[in-house]
Each structure stands twice: as structure tokens, then as C-alpha cells.
Amino acid sequence: MDTRNKFFFIKYYIYSRRYFFLQFLLFFGLLLFFSFIFEDSRVVLQYIFILLLVLGILTLSIDSLIAYKNYHNQLLYGQGQTQTAVEALLFEKVQRMEAEKKIKTPIAAGSLLVQDLTDPDAKKQLGQEFFKIESYVNLVLQYLRLESFHDDLVLKKENLEDLVKEVVKKYALFFIQKGLTLNLHDLDRTIVTDKKWFMIILEQVLSNSLKYTKEGGIEIFCQDDVLYLKDTGLGIKDSDIMRVFERGFSGYNGRLTHQSSGLGLYLSKKISDQLGNSLSLDSQVGQGTIVKIGLAEKRLAID
What we know:
Blueprint: H1 3-16, H2 18-37, H3 42-77, H4 85-115, H5 120-145, E1 156-159, H6 160-170, H7 172-178, E2 181-185, E3 190-193, H8 195-211, E4 217-223, E5 226-231, H9 238-241, H10 251-257, H11 264-275, E6 279-284, E7 288-294
Parallel strand pairs: 2-4
Antiparallel strand pairs: 1-3, 4-5, 5-7, 6-7
């Protein structure tokens, strides 16, 4: 078992037994306190204190060994019986981490091999394909994480311009290869959000714009508590606009280019709803699409 998994075990074991530890400390604290108050019974109380302390430590040691064995079996074989809801959540989280590691490792290895290619055209083309594969894998993993959205939700003040630039930088190669212009303005403002989840929305929206924009460019700006992403792409048919946020819906453009998974905008809509942001779009065929992300702070919906 690696260090990270051991850390998770210790952390969640202590958390799952927190009430026992509190009672343990309270009981023995009172017993020790009374042994100093009642001098006549001090020897007896101290003897009881030591005896119960030894028994308590022995019981806790046995319990921790059983929990550790159960945890180890769960990691190795997917077996074992969880004693608490926290332990069940821990096992599920660890299994998910191990699964993600197994999926991402060959992709990362392939990307490293591409860097050793001497043919610049082949290197560029294969690099793009591995980037797309990694993006699709991340999309599926993010979709699966929706069920545990609130488990690691961290709300902080973030600079919107920094978030947008970080996502744009990731896709810089596609702007260069397609010869697309990029116009960022009026983005210097602070928002309260979870950076990881909000970045997923930005990435999916920008990725969609790049897929369907062959010439012209993309403009990203903020106005009246709304973040706008405007492209000069293919545009979306009126019959498709009402369904673009449905799970699995790829629409006419997706079927035409064979580049749509039908999950990107669905995932973005789900995340934006959870974060308290609105997400909508306007589009005209042949002229482009405008995606609007409402930034007004709202109370998060906690399931």
C-alpha cells in the first residue's frame, strides 16, 4: 500500500471513530480528575484508570487492525465489509482513484513517446490525437464524478481573467493551427466559485467553439454579471438549440463532423446548476454561437 493510501486510511479511520475518541478522552479525563480530588480513593481510582486505559488501547488496536485488513483487502480484491458510511465512501473513492490511474497511465505514456518523434508533422498530428483522447477520457471521468459533486467542493474567490487564460492556454495550439483570432477583454473581476468545476465548464464551452469554428475567431468577455463566449463557427440549427443540453444529444453539427460525444454541454449545464450559475446560448446557422454563463452569486443547491 502506498503512502497516499495509508494517509487516507489514517485520516478516515480517525474521522469514523471520532465519537469514540471523544468519549474515551472525556471518560478518562474525568476519572483522572476524580483521582486527584478524592484522596482516600486515589489509589483505587488510579488502578481502575490504568486498567481501563490498557483495555481501551487493546480494543482500539484490534479494531484498527481489523479495519486496516478490511481496507487492504478492498484495495487488492474489491472485497471486505465497510463498518461505516465514511469507510464505504473511502473505499469507493480509492477505487475510483485507482481506476483513473489505470486509464490515464497509458495515455500519458503515449504522449511521452510522441515527444521523441523526429518527424515534426507526425509529432504534431499524434500530439493532437492524444490530446483529444485525453480530453474525451477526462470528460467521461468528470461525468462519473458528478454523483460526488459536493464531496470535494471548495468555494474560493477567483480571478475570472486568470481562469479564462488558463483554459485558453491549454488550447493555444488549436488557435494557431486553425489561424483563429482570440479577443479577451473586460474579464478582470473576482467571482466566488469552485475552480476545478468552473474550469470544466469553460473548457467544454471553449472546446465546442473550437470544434465548429474553421475561420474567424473567438471573443470572450464579461458584461453585467454574464460571461460571454462568442465564436464565428457553424452555428446551431433552431431545431437543435432547445436540446443541446440533453445528455447524449449531438445534433446536426455533431453528426456532420463526427466530433460530438453528446456529454460536454450536458455536463456543463449540470455543473453550472450546482454552482448557482446560469448557462444558455444563442446561435445562428452560418454566423456563429454565443454562450452565456451567468456569474451572479446564488445559494448552492445542496442535495
